[in-house]
Amino acid sequence: MLGDAAIGPGTFIGDLESALVGSGWAFASVNYRLAPGSRWPAQINDAKCAVRYLRAHAAALHIDPARVAAVGASAGGQLASLLGLAGPGAGFDVGPYAGVPSTVQAVVDEFGPTDLDATSWSATPVARALTPEVFGVPSQPACPVLIGASPASYVAAGDPPFLVIQGAEDDVVAPAQSEELVQRLDAAGDRGTLVLVAHAGHGLVPSGSGPLTPSIAGLAQQAANFLTDRMGR
């Protein structure tokens, strides 16, 4: 579907980039193939290849290959979560830089769908419209393709820490999706933190009469602190 990795000022990602780069971090924004021209798993194949590329060229890029985090929103949140959870056994590591790990050491997921098999996603109008175009299958329970594309399917002990940001009024990706992911992480003994943003719809667009709480700037600083605390400066 339509999308671009350009980072706009005044957005969560833009504020997070500024905070991290200002503290000496490197920040890479990744484009990946889009549906319906390229169906699943092209998107996660590309995201994993991007991580392998960064690691393979770490010396030239002056980055630390042992400290890589993934950040994404909506569909990008799903991909970032899969980078943190789906290991080589998932079969997504194809293409160049074979043998270079695509693992990440921390994840910031903004309102990404996490369980495509759950009715909180599969029964929604958005899922019914997008699933055939993106995944080539109908939106229905117990579908192996959708289970395999669900970050929640891969949660296990030893996963990297997660910060999950979710609009409380999101009617595209229900809060139950983010809540389930964090609950599974906690049950596995991993570190998952959920931030429910009051008066926020999908994309953290204001919804209702009150202000976004926390604010976009506050969320970006919280995410920057999370990454710095989990991986060091």
Could you please describe the fold and organization of this structure?
It is a single chain. This protein is α/β, with parallel strands linked by helices. The protein has one domain: Alpha/Beta hydrolase fold, catalytic domain (Rossmann fold), CATH 3.40.50. It is built from nine helices and four strands, in the order αααβαβαααβαβα. It has a four-stranded parallel beta sheet, sandwiched between helices. Helix 1 packs across helix 9 and helix 2 crosses helix 4. The radius of gyration is 17 Å and the shape is globular.
SSE diagram, text form:
Blueprint: H1 12-21, H2 42-56, H3 58-61, E1 69-73, H4 75-85, E2 106-110, H5 119-122, H6 125-135, H7 144-148, E3 162-167, H8 175-187, E4 192-197, H9 216-231
Parallel strand pairs: 1-2, 2-3, 3-4
Structural class comes to alpha/beta
> CATH topology, anyone?
Rossmann fold
Q: Helix count?
A: 9
CATH superfamily: Alpha/Beta hydrolase fold, catalytic domain
Strand content: 5-15%
CATH class assignment: Alpha Beta
Structural shape? globular
What is the number of strand segments? 4
First and last CA, distance: 36 Å
Mean pLDDT reading: 94
Low-confidence stretches: none
Percentage of residues in helical conformation: 25-40%
